[in-house]
Every structure is written in structure tokens, then in C-alpha cells.
């Protein structure tokens, strides 16, 4: 017995995919899967982790299926037909299946793939089975080979709180189990416009604040937080957090605090820098700075007198943070 979650394409392969060995086709269907299926298969062994036909293979799986705003609960599902494909660019070999949802509002034939399909990519048919039975060695969709596509959660032009309770226009949610990595908890969050608060929860997430003054909370996992173009607060979980800013260079000067032990900045006058004249206006001295919170505590450590300061990078050059 197995329970697993998959995404599927709103695309009927019958009449669209070739069935002859050696034939090729170009994927021109949806760029991303739009459907969600939470599958429960009561069979044992290889039958429990695969989908084959409900006729020859006697498939008995059921699923809660959602697509296009409609849902089927506890519908019978099976693989009406299965293709083995080869990606002509990468050489990867995998199975796709005609995913048959038999009951409820979401009933229909769709496409389920063990790996995300690439728009405009050519695929070669290596084999085809119109009535697969995995027990006799026929090809089948195998959930253990399934590679989840990115679970992209989109915000709007306004400010909002985007967490596990937020559902975007496509039905995507943080930590829904349909993302990447362990438990399907890895998500991509595009917060969009407005002043947003994002809590990415578990998994290895990528969070992009976009426009507005955003607060980004990575949660647990190895997260990447990008505050966007406006001021943002990035709060990591238990890993390194980085953020990128545009800063103004004040020019070169002597070390403001050459003696770190006495608590005094010997050359405080050098803080004004050397730029700012008519010949070197500050608006022309913009630089890119990236900070690294390696402790993940939400602050950049700046104690270089007995402590361990964290780093920042300005135009590709790494510096230790110094509180002076």
C-alpha cells in the first residue's frame, strides 16, 4: 500500500502522442502541470507504487483530484496507457501515462509524467502499452521515480500574508506536499507587489519578495531569500540567509579603526569618504552589496574584536563587517 501526491497536465495524450517505437514529437502542451492528485493505492509490492490499467492490471487506486477549480474525492484512477519516452537533449528515459480519473467533477483523461516535461523539447517513443499490467512486466507509471516540478506560489500586486494557509490563483500552497525535496515541502514563492509577509515553512525554499517592503521568513530548511528592489527584512530558519542591496560608495579612505582593542575609532573623520565632489557625484557611485547571515539569526555579526564577524560582498569583493 502506498500514498503519494503528484501533479498532472491538463492534456489528453490520446491522439496527440505517437505510439510507434522510434517516433518523435515536440511537447507543445501546458508548460506546467495544473492538476493535483493525492493517490492512495491499497495494492502491495510493485503494484502499490505504480499505476497501470484497471482492466489488464486490475488497478484499484483512488485519489482526491483537483483541477480547474473542480474536485473529485475518492475517485477511481488508473493508467489507461503508458509510454516510455527518451528526452532527446538529456537522454533521460522515463514513463508518462494517460491518467484516467473516472468519477466526480474532475473526471477525464489527463497526462501524468515521472519527470517534468520541457516546452519545445523533442521526445522519442521507446515503447507503448495500451493496456499495461505491471505484474507481467509491462511498463507503468512508477511513483518512486516521480520528480516533482517546482511548486510555484504566486502573490498578487497587493500586500498579503503568504503562508501555508494562502492559496494562489492556480491552487498552489506552501508546504502542500506537491513541491520538491523530502515530503514535497520545497516551494518557490513569488510574492509580487505590495508589502508582503512570507513564511516559507518547511523544506528547501526559494522566496522572492518582488516589489514593496517585504518580510521574508525562510523557516526550516536550506532557503534562499531575495528581498527584491525595496527594503526588506529576511529572517532565516537554521541556515545562511543572504540579501542583495544597491549602495553608494563613498570612496577610499584610511582604516577608520586600525586598533580594534581600545573601543575608539582613531580616524573617524574618514567616514565621510573621498567621493561627493562635482567630479565624483555620489549618484554615479552605486555599487552592489550582498550580506550573508551565516548564523541564520536575522542579524549580521559585526564584532571583529574577539568575535566572528560575518561577511558582505561589494562588487564581488568580500569584506568582514566591522562595527568600528
TrEMBL record:
InterPro entries: Hemolysn_Ca-bd, Serralysin-like_metalloprot_C. Pfam families: HemolysinCabind. SUPFAM superfamilies: beta-Roll (SSF51120). GO terms for molecular function: calcium ion binding. It comes from the Bacteria. This is Hemolysin-type calcium-binding repeat-containing protein.
